[in-house]
Design a protein that fits this description.
This protein is α/β, with parallel strands linked by helices. It contains 12 helices and 19 strands. The strands form 2 sheets. Strands 1, 11, 12, 13, 14, 15, 16, 17, 18 and 19 form a 10-stranded mixed beta sheet that branches. Bound molecules: pyridoxal-5'-phosphate (PLP). The site of pyridoxal-5'-phosphate (PLP) has 12 residues, from loops.
């Protein structure tokens, strides 16, 4: 009769797993700390910690001494609180009136991006008899959220005068920092510093200033200020092909599966949906149990690669919802053999960056697409 531990072992017997290397995460954090010399760290764990698993990653980062966590949505902050995380948590995204009460209930810091939102937060705080901890969002060029830096004076004044709100931070987001040569970042910095003068003018202490995402951490030391907000670089991945590889970060996630089927395919017999690929000679083909239903990009059809026995082999035919096929040519593999989709095998390596390029997207999307059909296994 199956008990709970049997069920667990059945779950971990799913041949496809994402291995999350927590020592690499610690290593990356140390390297980033060294790079920012003295600024605090708000570790960004939105989108299931970039696919690495929200709660386990947050718990590990909390043990490693990050000062703060950042998430995109209220729900993510609530999950962290329900799992017992006590660090300060900033929700970076825009908010709706109906959500404000939950920020106060769960002790989450609020991004306030207009005078109107400030007033709404104040109203709820009065009713709840609580102070709201807020960060002011200033738009210096991203045109996404926040009060434009050139008209931020009245907004900042209203916020610092507010009796219900504690202005803990003031921040902006960089649009082009992953490219060290982009002049945009310098413009955004200039606008940010000019906006900060309002605090001096009002003769109030300047709150915690934060501006740098991974690109800022890597390329623009002047953006490090009081706190940095690294996301993808924490997970050991560079934000862009143009980024300078100046930090020795290590990829935290690797993705493995196993061969579940082997066959010989005759010349002229097309493979998978749409019959988009066929060989003109006899080949050996294996089937791998992962597909776009797991978040593995369908755009890797006829483009992606895997490692089996330390050799790179191409995906042939379309990626299906739950499986895809790989051409071994005259190579060999057996049912149950390990297949590496991201990571190292016998000295060969497949990176998230390569996969993103082949799939016509960015590493961020590759990582965040992996869904909860793929078990995460945490290794030290
Ligand atoms: C996602 C996000 C970050 C982290 O970005 P990375 O490029 O992954 O470092 C930082 N700040 C804000 C506001 C974000 O939305």
């Amino acid at each position: 009769m199956a008990n709970i531990s049997d069920q667990q072992s059945e779950i971990t017997l799913r041949p496809t797993v994402a291995k999350i290397n927590l020592s690499h995460l610690s290593h990356n954090l140390e390297i980033i700390k060294h790079q920012i010399n003295g600024s605090k760290i708000m570790a960004i764990v939105k989108a299931n910690a970039y696919g690495h698993g929200l709660v386990p990653v947050a718990q590990h980062l909390a043990q490693q001494g990050v000062e703060q966590l950042g998430v995109a949505f209220l729900e993510e902050g609530v999950s962290l609180r329900k799992s017992g995380i006590q660090l300060p948590i900033l929700v970076l995204g825009g908010i709706l009136n109906t959500q404000i009460q939950y920020f106060l209930d769960f002790d989450l810091e609020i991004t306030v991006s207009s005078i109107d939102k400030l007033r709404q937060v104040e109203e709820v705080a009065v009713v709840k008899k609580k102070k709201a901890v807020i960060h002011l969002k200033i738009d210096t060029g991203m045109e996404r959220l926040g009060v434009h830096s050139y008209s931020a004076g009245p907004f900042i004044e209203a916020a610092v005068r507010s009796k219900q709100c504690v202005v803990k931070g003031v921040y902006s987001h960089l649009a082009c920092a992953d490219d060290p040569k982009s002049p945009m970042t310098l413009e955004q910095m200039e606008r940010f510093f000019e906006m900060l003068l309002h605090f001096e003018r009002l003769q109030v202490p300047t709150p915690v200033r934060h501006l740098a995402n991974s690109g800022g951490v890597l390329h623009f030391p002047q953006t490090h200020l009081d706190m940095v907000r690294p996301g993808i670089i924490l997970y050991g991945i560079y934000p862009d092909m143009a980024s300078h590889r100046i930090l020795d970060v290590k990829p935290v996630l690797s993705l493995c599966s196993r061969v579940v089927y082997f066959k010989v395919v005759q010349p002229g017999r097309p493979i998978s949906y749409g019959a988009t690929w066929q060989s003109d000679h006899m080949i050996r083909v294996v089937t791998i149990p992962i597909g776009y239903g797991d978040g593995y990009c369908r755009s890797l059809s006829n483009r992606g690669e895997v490692l089996i026995g330390g050799t790179r082999y191409p995906i042939v035919g379309r990626v299906c919802m739950d499986q895809f096929m790989v051409n071994l040519e005259d190579g060999s593999a057996y049912n149950g053999d390990e297949v590496v989709l991201i990571g190292m095998q016998n000295g060969e390596m497949l990176t998230v960056e390569d996969m993103a390029e082949k799939a016509g997207t960015i590493p961020y999307e590759i990582l965040t697409r992996f869904n909860n059909r793929i078990p995460r296994v945490y290794v030290q």
